[in-house]
Structure formats: C-alpha cells, structure tokens
Amino acid sequence: MKQKIELLKKSVAASLLIALGDYALLKLGEPLGPFLFALGLLGVCYMGLNLFTGKCGFLFADHIPFLDLMWILVGNLAAGWVFGWLFSVAEPGLAEAANAKIGTWSVSLPFFLRSCLCGVVMYVAVLLYRKGTPLGIVFGIPLFIFCGFQHCIANVITLGVARTFDWSLPVAVAGNFLGSLAIWWCSKKEIAPCGA
Predict the structure, then answer these.
(1) Is there a contact between 76 and 51 (Cβ–Cβ < 8 Å)?
(2) pLDDT in tens, 164-196
(3) Residue ranges making up the domain that contains 105
C-alpha cells in the first residue's frame, strides 16, 4: 500500500509540473508558450516523478508492472483535471483559450495519429535525457506543440481548465501509449531506469 501511495504522490507531482507548462501555453500562446512548457518535463525527469507519457515507452525495458503504469495514468489524469480546474479559478480568462483548443479535437484517425506521434516524441525526449542530454526535452516539447501532436496529460489539464470532458481523451491516451511503444520496439534499446 505504501508503494502505491508513493506512486500516486509522484504522479500527482508530475501532473502539477505539466499543468504549469499547460498554464503557460494557454496564457501566452505561441511562440513563447511551447518553450516554457518544456520546463514541466525537465522537472519531471530531474525530480524522478511519474508521468504516463514518459513511462509507457519504457514499459518493457524497465520492467514496469502494467498495473503500476495504470496507477500512474489514473493519478496523472485525475490530478491534471483538478489542477486545470484550480487554474481556471485562479485565472478565469484561461477558459476561453482552453475551449478554443478543445474545439479542434475529435475522435478521429488524424487525431489518433497525432497522438501516436506525440508518443514518439516523448519517448525520444526521455531517452535522450537518460543518455545525458536535456536537448530532447528542450526541442521535443516545442516540436510536438507546434506540430499539433496530442499529449493526453496536457489535454486533460486543458479539459480541467474548461471544466468539461471530451471523448478524444481516451484516443490521446491510446495514441501516446502505442506511439511510445512502437518507437521503442523499433529501436529495442536497453536504457537504465530514471524518473519520467
């Protein structure tokens, strides 16, 4: 039980860091927002926190129990929505930007493929961090945002800001998961475990 609580604590903390990045993105927009968003994943990696999109590509390489990955996902999603809601209280003007963003989402093949591509970028970003360079994060996060790739945890935070739910969220979760695993399977690299 203690292990599960620690798992959830690190998942909530990871959601908070990603939420801060999403706050900056919604408030400032492009081009500055995507670069500031990178601080979220940098913090997750350096602090050894649990972020679903940073872990799922390493599911087999790190021998992560699938149930633990699901706990991380639930922690990220629940905490992310709540943080988004709190941000909407702190700054009501964010809701307009959040609703505009959600209006571009859909349950569709293009949306799913953009989610898969985000999974690829996240895997590469964390892989490069594990190899000793933060450049994958510094460039990878702006890359997926500028390209319109879909990150499920960032999306649930945006949903929290808008105080709503959208069925594109499970599509983003599946795409992030499959995209990360696909690029891992193609590379088959054994990397030492770390946070993310």
Answers:
(1) yes
(2) 999 999 999 999 999 999 999 998 755 555 556
(3) 2-187
Kindly state the average pLDDT of the residues 81-92. 97
Cα–Cα distance, 174 to 152 (Å, whole number): 9
| Residue 29 within any structural domain of the chain | yes
- Domain count for the chain: 1
Mean pLDDT along residues 84-100: 96
Q: What is the C-alpha separation between 36 and 21, in angstroms, rounded?
A: 6
Chain centre to alpha carbon of residue 61 = 20
- The rounded distance, in Å, linking the Cα atoms of 48 and 40 is 12
The CATH code of the domain that includes 117 is 1.20.1080.10
Q: Is the dihedral of CA 118, 122, 128, 133 positive or negative?
A: positive
Rounded average pLDDT over 157-163: 98
Letter string b/e over residues 46-82, b meaning 16 or more CB atoms within 10 A of that residue's CB:
eeebbbbbbbbbbbebeebeeebbebbbebbbbbbbb
Q: Is residue 194 part of a domain?
A: no
Please count the residues of the chain. Answer: 196
**Is 196 within the bounds of a domain?**
no
Q: What is the mean pLDDT of residues 65-93?
A: 97
Q: Which two tokens stand for residue 163?
A: 């105080």
Is 192 inside any structural domain? no
- The yes-or-no verdict on residue 91 having pLDDT over 80 is yes
